[in-house]
Design goal:
The protein has a single domain, classed as Spore Coat Polysaccharide Biosynthesis Protein SpsA, Chain A (Alpha-Beta Complex). The chain has eight helices and seven strands. It has 228 residues and is of the alpha/beta class.
C-alpha cells in the first residue's frame, strides 16, 4: 500500500486480544489503527495506548454502532483519510486481509466493500442466525449479498460522509450500514474473508439478537419499499 490506511477498531472488553489485532495490522502494511474503546471495564484502552495507537474512549458502554460512528466522525474531522477499514477486535477475522477490501476501493470499483464468510466455518447456532438475517435482508431490499452481518468492511470517503450520519446503536449497525448504502445508491462489492470463532454466544442472548436484528431489518425494508 502506498498510502495511509486508517483502521477503526470498535472494542469492548477486548484487553486479551487488542494487542494481537494491532500487531497483525502493523505487520501487514502502512496502517493507522484507531481504537474506539466503548466504555470497557478491563485494560483495553490502556493496552492500546501503550502500543502507541490512537485511542478514543466512551465514558460508558454505548454499543458497537455508536463506537463506529465515533470513529467515522474522528476520521472525517481530524484526518485526511480517503479510505477506512472497520474490523471487530475479537480476532474472529484476520486483520492481515484488509488489503483485499481496500484494493476494490482504490480501483474505484466500489464505495463500500463487504467481507463475506464461508458459513460452513461458522458454528451452527451462529450460522442459522446469520442465514435468517441474510434472507430477510435480501428479500426486503431486493439484493443478493452473500453476508449481511459480518464486522469486516471498508469504505471510501463518500461512504464515510453518508454513513456517519446514522444514529443506530448496538449490533443492528452491521445491517444499518448496508441499508444506508442501498438508500444512497452506494456501490457495494464483496470479497471473501477468513473467519474463526473462539467463543459462542449465550443461547438466550443469541435469540434476542436474531429477533432484534430481524425486526429492525424488516421494518427498515418496509420503509425502503414504500419510501417513508
Amino acid at each position: 500500500m502506498d498510502m495511509k490506511i486508517y483502521v477503526l477498531l470498535p472494542a469492548y472488553n477486548e484487553g486479551k486480544k487488542i494487542k494481537a489485532v494491532i500487531q497483525k495490522l502493523f505487520s501487514s502494511g502502512h496502517i493507522i489503527p484507531v481504537v474506539i474503546d466503548d466504555g470497557s471495564t478491563d485494560a483495553t484502552a490502556e493496552i492500546a495506548k501503550k502500543i502507541g495507537v490512537i485511542v478514543i474512549q466512551h465514558n460508558e458502554n454505548r454499543g458497537k454502532g455508536a463506537a463506529i460512528r465515533t470513529g467515522l466522525r474522528y476520521l472525517l474531522s481530524k484526518t485526511d483519510a480517503e479510505y477506512t477499514v472497520i474490523i471487530d477486535t475479537d480476532m474472529q477475522y484476520n486483520p492481515e486481509e484488509y488489503g483485499r477490501l481496500i484494493k476494490l476501493l482504490k480501483e474505484n470499483k466500489a464505495d463500500f466493500v463487504n467481507g463475506y464468510r464461508d458459513f460452513k466455518k461458522i458454528p451452527s447456532r451462529h450460522r442459522w442466525g446469520n442465514l435468517v438475517w441474510k434472507w430477510i435482508f435480501n428479500f426486503m431490499f431486493k439484493t443478493d449479498l452473500k453476508d449481511t452481518s459480518n464486522g469486516f468492511v471498508a469504505m471510501n470517503k463518500r461512504a464515510m460522509k453518508i454513513l456517519v450520519k446514522g444514529a443506530y446503536g448496538g449490533y443492528i449497525i452491521d445491517h444499518a450500514l448496508r441499508i444506508d448504502c442501498i438508500r444512497h445508491n452506494l456501490r457495494i462489492e464483496e470479497v471473501p474473508v477468513s473467519v474463526r470463532y473462539f467463543r459462542k454466544s449465550n443461547v438466550l442472548r443469541g435469540i434476542r439478537m436474531v429477533i432484534g436484528v430481524s425486526l429492525f431489518t424488516f421494518i427498515e425494508g418496509l420503509k425502503y419499499r414504500w419510501i417513508f
